[in-house]
Amino acid sequence: MGQKVHPIGFRLGIKVGERSVKDWDGRWFATGKEFSDLLLEDIKVREHIMTRMADAGVAKVEIERSANMITVTIHAAKPGIVIGKSGVKVEELRRTLEAMTGKRIRVTIQEIRQPEINAMLVARSIADQLEKRVAFRRAMKQAVQRAQRFGAKGVRVQVSGRLGGSEMSRREWDRWGRVPLHTLRADIDYGQTEAHTTYGVIGVKVWVYRGDFTPDGRSPEEVAAEQRQPDRRGPRTTVRAEVPEAAAPEAAAPAVPAEVDYSRGGVFEPGEDSGEIRPRGAQPATGETPPPTIAVQPPTPPARPAPTPPRPPTPPTPPPPANPTEA
């Protein structure tokens, strides 16, 4: 059987530009017995947060240790559930972790913008559906389609166990796009969880390929965010030209007649040179010589002859007698 390497552990320490493709979830250093004690403490903290905030969609818990403080960063799809009303839940969680570890705890919460392409949340969603007796093929297909719709370049889902309650356990998988596991600069998210059903435990694994890191170290999310932003160019500079004022004319220009409203009727009365149009009955402006008026004679209709009276009808001629002797 082929041996598989953890996609995230395989990319730890790989740098593209000035950034690492993947980073550790725990950022601290220890030697000897202290290392095993701190590692066990991290495991207990993560298990407590995952169990207590199961309905908040927690995908990852990062732990960073300093000299006298532990910073816990919770990546959740629903940060409001983690915080609670007026921060009651997160404050209660902080006090519980302090009692568990005996150290000062600072809790920060980060929201996951697209839970549909987060491998851990996708795997947890499939496991929840399997626990509710949803058909495993339907759950896998819906998860792949959602990841495809929300911008993933490739996704692979695999479930193994007593699928459908069968006596013999088997492994089924579904894939869309490409998942280049051997490309170190590829941003591949990996999630693994378990579904506890009445027939047994079913394992769920999810690989999500988001894209490649650019040579200057930008992640696929940053490149997509820059493409969604509008054009950052500033407003166009307006060039204003100074127009010198025109000199006042010696003589005032004649008043321009108003535009004729032909909807109320008008007559064309040409002047001497201007050929202006004025409404019917309008008076010329003051100081202006009225143009000569041309009398227009209406055309005389042609004379028609008197109609001839009709002639009276001619009386009919009587028919001749039938027998001449009788006449």
Task: Please explain how this structure is put together.
The protein has 327 residues and is an alpha+beta fold. The chain has six helices and ten strands, in the order βββαββααβααββββα. Helix 4 packs antiparallel against helix 5. Helix content is 23%, strand content 21%. It is elongated and about 165 Å long. Strand 9 (186-196) and strand 10 form a beta hairpin. The model is unreliable at 266-270 (pLDDT under 50). A four-stranded mixed sheet has the order 3-4-5-6. A four-stranded antiparallel sheet has the order 8-7-10-9, covered by helices on one side. The chain has helices at 33-52, 79-83, 88-101, 119-131, 136-149, 220-228; strands spanning 15-16, 19-20, 26-27, 58-65, 69-76, 104-111, 154-161, 170-177, 186-196, 201-212.
Q: Can you summarize this structure?
A:
The chain is an alpha+beta fold and 327 residues long.
Fold blueprint:
Blueprint: E1 15-16, E2 19-20, E3 26-27, H1 33-52, E4 58-65, E5 69-76, H2 79-83, H3 88-101, E6 104-111, H4 119-131, H5 136-149, E7 154-161, E8 170-177, E9 186-196, E10 201-212, H6 220-228
Parallel strand pairs: 3-4, 5-6
Antiparallel strand pairs: 1-2, 4-5, 7-8, 7-10, 9-10
Helix pairs in contact: 4-5
Shape by Cα distribution: elongated
The SSE string, one letter per element, is EEEHEEHHEHHEEEEH
Number of strands: 10
Number of helical segments?
6
In spatial order, strands of the major sheet run: 3-4-5-6
The protein's oligomeric status is single chain
Task: Calculate Rg over CA atoms.
Answer: 49 Å
Q: Which blocks of ≥5 consecutive residues have pLDDT under 50?
A: 266-270
The structure class reads alpha+beta
Strand content: 15-25%
Helicity, as a percent range: 10-25%
Mean pLDDT across every amino acid position: 81
